Amino acid sequence: MRPIGGYFELQLLPGSSVFHSAPAIALKSGRASISLLLRHKQPEHVWLPYYTCDALLEPLKKNHIKFSFYEIDNNFEIAGNIPEISPKECIIYINFFGLKNVYSEYLESKHKENLWLDHTQAFFYKPVNIKSFHFNSARKFFGVPDGSYLYGPDIWDSINVQALPRNNEYKIEHLILRYQGKVAEGHKIFKENESLSGHGIARMSQISESILSHVNYNESSSKRKTNYNILHDALGKTNQLPEEIAGNPNNTVPICYPYLPPHPIEKEYFWENSIFVPTFWQECIKRSSSGYYFEKMLSNILLPLPIDQRYGEPEMNRIIELIKKHEK
After folding, report:
1. What is the CA angle 161-67-282, rounded to 5?
2. Cα separation of 209 and 273, whole Å?
């Protein structure tokens, strides 16, 4: 029974901004999308990049699915040839930094339903002529507690979406604390929310759905691309990544500017100056004692510089000045 009267709840009315709609299914997280695909497709073996986070492994381990890693080259494409994919196998490829749209589409034409494309770093990628399975992550791009959109060639025919429960297991306090400028205070709650955004299958929360319906997506994507280009214009000559990766994003909307400095720069140098540069992904180093040298180097040295829509030219110049000061 719905209670009447009393104090007001957080009042979030639906807006008109929709970026991902049908045929996408709105789920709680990228891990939930993988879990639903595992239940839907029931693969016996999964190929995935060595250069990835442990979160991608979580649903596979939970469902006792065998998996193998493959290497990537310096263009962040599959190195060498993966053996012929059997009908009971699938391959996961990450659209790295949101810059590998064209390569993702090439893989889709090759592997079709055996390919699962991870766009958690490419929220603004919208698949057309869907032959493979695609999923993304809203909370890596916007201030929401959860959210992932899953696309697939036969997804609506095989899954009763409305029978899935709504996600009510999330935290929002970290979003409020960050809004108030209390970054450190909110970080622990942020980590708690990350744990809650696990592999359990549930639809996106109503609060995320409402917030996302008010986002100005054109402005957000435009700011990201502008910020990316400011950083690349200043840092491109010293970036050790190939121009194909680090160059102009063109029709992509990146999650960050991937900067591989000529000499390592400790993340603490940025953190001490209130620039929060993450690590993609330290857990790679612990997985194997041999091989995967490129991936391990990336985990140690790559700087995923923030470019998101909260910032503009003054913030990008702060980052540039800090890097140039270190490299003198």
Report:
1. 95
2. 34
Alpha-helical (H) ranges within 74-203 are: 101-111, 155-158, 173-179, 183-196
Position 116 pLDDT exceeds 90: yes
Q: What is the dihedral of CA 237, 222, 278, 267, to 10 degrees?
A: 40
Q: CB under 8 Å to 190, separation ≥6 — which residues?
A: 171, 174, 178
175-205 in b/e form (b: 16+ CB < 10 A) is bebbeeeeeeebeebbeebeebbbbbbbbbb
pTM tops 0.85: yes
Q: What is the mean pLDDT of residues 183-208?
A: 89
Tokens 């996408």 identify what position?
Answer: 24
**Could you read off the pLDDT of 6-38 as tens digits, one per residue?**
877 778 888 889 999 988 999 999 999 999 999
Contact (CB, 8 A) for 204 and 167: yes
Which residues have CB under 8 Å from 47's CB, separation 6+? 67, 68, 69, 70, 82, 85, 89, 90, 91, 92
